[in-house]
Amino acid sequence: MNGFFTSGVVCIVGAILLIVLVFLAQAIKIVPEYQRLVVFRLGRVLEKPIGPGIILLIPIIDRARWVDLREQIREVPHQVSITKDNAPISIDFLWYFKVIEPVQSVIQVGNFEQSAAGIAATTLRAVIGGIPLDDVLSEREHINNMLRNRLDEVTERWGVKVTNVEIREIIPPREVQEAMNRQMTAERVRRALVTESMGDKEAAVNRAEGTKQAAVLQADGERQSNILRAEGEKQAQALRAEGFAVALEKINAAAGKVDPKTMSLQYFETLKSIGLSPSTKYIFPMEFTSMLDNFLNKDAKK
Fold it and tell me: Is the CB of residue 162 less than 8 Å from the CB of residue 97?
């Protein structure tokens, strides 16, 4: 009887300990720095979230919801949208968000991620519907800003902040893709032709500039050469004139020392050499000129 009683007491104590451990496991929570607990006490939410650190909850009375405060990223898959000029395009994007008010994110919306994804898809169609295709392809940053602002306006009341939106891929219709490829090819050909023509132009200018400089250098060389030749010729003529003057002075000096007999002898030698030539000669002797001098002097005296 005593053994049965003892076994019963042990079972009761063990059950109590088990219940206590279960209660403690439910009551004690360790909240990381990046999470918060939104606690409902008897169905009413506490004004402020709890955490971080060790938290003690009241079992059965308190019910907690975990909320992650880190920035999250979600993908909105490809959505077919119609642009302002009625071109169907497929577009997907990423959106980044973080919870800034944990209590509001729990009590204001059932599943804010799913709700935000649905709003993002409808917002994307609304934004794309107001923009022409060319602007959609060229103004991604503008579309990103519009999507972020509109999503942020909607999710603000849920305590969620949309931090960024990035369009990942835009797939235009096949006809538009082919036209874009042709345009891109034509643009590259045009750039190649422009680059080639600019190269030809620069080459022609360089050749002309080289020819011009060569002609200038050649003309300058010829001018300097002519100047040097003229200066040389001038100096040569001056030297020849100087030598001729010196020779005349010496001849004059030598002629002043020659006596009349020597002059007569030279005169006869000259007549002799002239007479050796077979051609006809008319010779007037020096004495004839002396006779003319006498005659002319007589007339002058009369």
Answer: yes
Q: Where are the beta strands (DSSP E) in 1-87?
A: 28-31, 35-41, 44-45, 53-56, 62-68, 72-82
Q: Write the DSSP symbol of residue 50.
A: B
- Per residue in 184-240, pLDDT (tens digit) is 889 989 999 999 999 999 999 999 999 999 999 999 999 999 999 999 999 999 999
d(CA 171, CA 2): 84
Residues 6+ apart with CB under 8 A from 301: none
Helix 140-155 / helix 112-128 crossing angle, nearest 10 deg: 140
Closest CA to 34 of 60, 81, 62, 68: 68
SS3 for 257? coil
Rounded-to-integer distance, Cα 26 and Cα 183, Å: 67
Strands 28-31 and 53-56: antiparallel
Beta-carbon contacts of residue 157 (< 8 Å; ≥ 6 apart) = 104, 108
Q: Is 160 helix (H, G, I), strand (E, B) or coil?
A: strand
Radius of gyration of the chain (CA): 62
CA distance 98 to 164: 10
Residue 26 makes CB contacts below 8 A (sequence gap 6+) with 57, 59
Q: H or E segment at 170?
A: strand 160-171
**Ranges in the chain, pLDDT < 50:** none
Give me the amino acid identity at 247: A
